[in-house]
Write a structure and sequence with these properties.
alpha+beta
Length: 114
């Protein structure tokens, strides 16, 4: 290729080895994540009441009820199947509660004449 001093050649080899190690771990995590996501369809079907959302750390997941996930998505915490902002435990708990009075409350007030 050219006349490269021995020191520069060794530095290049060391840099490439280090880069390969970094990519190896990154690629391993990516394959692990994609395998997990693809396996979800076997565990959580389209009519399941729960959904798995990836946490902001990119490695762990949170299991949510579908309505709970939709409320968190509406609040801006979720995009796709990932948290863009990790909610606190209280925020996750609050998302379990429906907004407003819900269908039962609406029917009750309708028949009560309110």
């Amino acid at each position: 290729l050219g006349t490269t001093p021995e020191g520069e050649s060794n530095a290049l080899v060391e840099r490439l080895k280090r880069q390969s190690e970094e990519n190896k771990e990154k690629n391993r995590l990516e394959v692990e994540l994609r395998t997990f996501e693809n396996d979800q369809s076997a565990t959580f079907g389209p009519f399941d009441r729960q959904v798995v959302i990836m946490n902001t750390d990119g490695k762990t997941f949170t299991l949510l009820q579908n309505p709970q996930a939709m409320r968190l998505k509406k609040a801006g915490f979720i995009e796709g199947r990932k948290f863009v902002k990790q909610p606190t435990a209280d925020e996750i708990e609050q998302a379990l509660e429906p907004d407003g009075e819900g269908l039962a409350g609406a029917l009750q007030s309708l028949f009560a004449g309110n």
